[in-house]
Amino acid sequence: QRWAVRRRIVEVVKSHPVSTIYVTHDQEEAMAVADRVALLNSGTVVQAGTPRSLYSRPVNVFAACFVGSPTIGLLPARPVISGGVAGFRVGARTLPLWRPLPSGLVDLVDQDVVLGVRPEHVQDARTGNDPSVVTMPATVVLVEETGPDAIVTLEVAAAAVTTPGSRPWETGAEGRARLRSRFARDTSVRPGETVPISVDVSRVHVFDPVTGQALHHPEDSDQPAR
Questions:
Q1: 60 by DSSP, 3-state: which?
Q2: Rounded Cα–Cα distance for residues 92 and 25 (Å)
């Protein structure tokens, strides 16, 4: 099996004190095998560093979309400050940060940005009762049973992102943005249903909508690799 071969490769490489170059198009395999990864796009190195740094601090939308499974979701948004509360406006909803706007985004208030949202930061809001959580409706597109949990693909009422590096095939049928989330394995949701979700916007990555370059990462992300 492929996972067994991958494990054996790691064992052999770790047991010999020599540098080894491993070439693969499978990002999961690269992340599992390598100490350091060089991510290429059309022959150009986009980012190099540890697997964790590529996941935690992607330099652009392409890197963010390539690294991580399930893949990151992209939302068009605008940083806002209203009544002293900062947040991100996504479609008709404003998702509060409950903290000051990051310093690197202060000059971008009311301007377009792209939010990168990892599946672990999208929650099924039906399971909580925190009154401070702002939810948004999402339509279930696909439910993938994986055993320990269910990977749920969701569409929200916001236009799909077309920033360089994004994946056009991730766009919904009506041009809507898509997110993914890990629901409980016993979830009863089915395609076509509308469910409330919450997005932890304190954990999002922020990108320039024109260039795709990273503008902000969560505060406790790993420092960039040298």
A1: strand
A2: 38
pLDDT at 226 over 60: no
pLDDT higher than 90, residue 8: no
Residue among 75, 31, 74 at smallest CA distance from 49: 31
**Strand residue runs (E) in the chain:** 37-41, 44-49, 73-82, 85-90, 93-96, 113-117, 122-124, 135-145, 149-159, 176-184, 194-199, 205-207, 214-216
In DSSP terms, 86 is beta-bridged to 81
Burial per residue of 114-136, b for 16 or more beta-carbon CB atoms within 10 angstroms, e otherwise = bbbbbbebbbbbeeeeeeebbbb
Single-letter residue type at 198 = S
CA–CA distance, 153 with 138 (Å, rounded to integer):
9
Instruction: Specify whether the CB–CB gap between 75 and 161 falls below 8 A.
Output: yes
* pTM of structure: 0.90
| Residue 221, pLDDT score | 60
pLDDT above 60 (res 224): no
pLDDT of amino acid 31? 87
Longest dimension (CA), the chain: 60
CA nearest 170: which of 66, 83, 90, 31?
A: 66
Give me 110's structure tokens.
């009311």
pLDDT digits (tens, 9 = 90+) for 169-188: 777 778 999 999 999 999 99
